[in-house]
């Protein structure tokens, strides 16, 4: 009985060994080949493969259209350098988000964001990276005595001066290293983060030779302020507030050519200038009124608006925080 | 003793076979996809993102696969109207398969809005209906008992029901977007997968940094994190939810209630006809990210216009 058992066990083991060896070889053969997965085909996978197919189609279309464009390669459009000062407050992320969405529609735009802060904040850093825009992230804190305090009316002290000047400084330094020297093509525009810009204004300003100007809506206590144009030249300014200023217009109402900025290394905004003279403090040193180039159909169309965003009412938040139940601060 | 050996033998035979069979069963393994992250080039301070010209072909080409998003925006004439619609259009130009339904609170469609819509190149529908005088907000006071834009939104819903039949295979999402809010592009991606009604947090509403739905560990909405009347059936802002088009079409009686609606209950007046709390789909990482801000634009102070109007009224702003 015992020997029979032994024999049986041995043969069984040998048999098992052979079968499993064959199985292993078969499995190894299977690994290199595609599996027939039709039974696993779920709706999600189908959608994904259809989307991939569409993506391929669009990429093909794009390649074809770019191939036909190649022979007529146009000279590169002048880059618009947009300098935006910004500071931390509740609506900052919202303002920068919608501003970036406008800029994303404009080709050849370089966004220079200057934070009023002793260091770069993660909120702005992440936003800029996610925006998909070509950008430069700078920071420059405002001196304490120049800063607006809680409860100060917004017109009390000029805002964004140090930040705009920092933007100009960086631009000059960066462009010094570029080929072309002082003859580089480009336009510099100062865009505040709460204004509204149409896409046309960027195309209008691209052809700036020295300083171009246009109307600005909802500013100066009026529906719009604008330069008055006669015979293709600016003769005076239509504004309701202090029209005797050398350049009575808003920051959003003019653009300066890069050449002019590079040729006048000292030209910048004067923070000590009286209220409303900030724009003039820069432009006085750069251009005279008859040299101004009127855009927007001889300054008859409003393509940029000086909108302002309300400060959100946080009464309930403050009440909650007093109880220690404020909403999660970690959420931006 | 022989019996024990028998048992051992049988176990030793059977066990490997069971293992083999289970391994065989799981042999249909799909090959793992390797992902590659593209890096943007860094040159000193400048961050350049490599992008093709495609980004500037606005709006993006229509896809046959993505569900359409029907954005309903009521609007009314005031100095900042053109500015608001301009920047909203600049945002919407990046959203694929977008259909903008703009409803003016006016007797007739205004030429300025018509021109704006045509210039954007967006896929749009332009409607108008005037709010009767007795419903309009008196002067400048913001009376919360008379919700603004209700009649306009209802008209848009009616238009959708008349235009799309419930049998068509077209998938769509309906979103109510006011013209002064701020929307991130991520929001539109999130709402595209709505099956019934999806919800997310909204910033700057209810006197808080943000209001949001309360989501439990199972990913279901069970309440509302608000201070202002959290016991409302749907304590959410107009910008905080989106509805699947099929649901709108399948419940043709569901509209925003016009009369007798308490402040803050307008959204509930529609949603309670469509869905229950447990059906809500939380988005934005289980309602932990803020993707939409209820910004409000200041009313411009036009003191210098004077009685006769200092500026040329023919110039459109």
What can you see in these coordinates?
Chain B: Pathway: Protein modification; protein glycosylation. Chain B: The chain crosses the membrane at residues 7-25. Chain B: Mn(2+) binds at residue 180. Chain B: It catalyses: 3-O-(beta-D-galactosyl-(1->3)-beta-D-galactosyl-(1->4)-beta-D-xylosyl)-L-seryl-[protein] + UDP-alpha-D-glucuronate = 3-O-(beta-D-GlcA-(1->3)-beta-D-Gal-(1->3)-beta-D-Gal-(1->4)-beta-D-Xyl)-L-seryl-[protein] + UDP + H(+). The complex is a heterodimer of chains A (332) and B (317). In chain A, β2 (109-115), α4 and β3 (134-139) form a beta-alpha-beta unit. With 332 residues, chain A is α/β, with parallel strands linked by helices. Chain A contains 10 helices and 12 strands. The mean pLDDT of chain A is 85. Chain A is elongated and about 115 Å long. A 7-stranded mixed β-sheet of chain A has the order 3-2-1-4-10-6-11, with helices on both faces. A 3-stranded antiparallel β-sheet of chain A has the order 7-8-9, with no helix packed on it. Chain B starts with a helix and ends in a 24-residue tail after the last strand. The radius of gyration of chain B is 27 Å and the shape is elongated. The interface between A and B is large, with 83 and 79 residues. β3 of chain A pairs antiparallel with β2 of chain B, so a sheet runs across the interface.
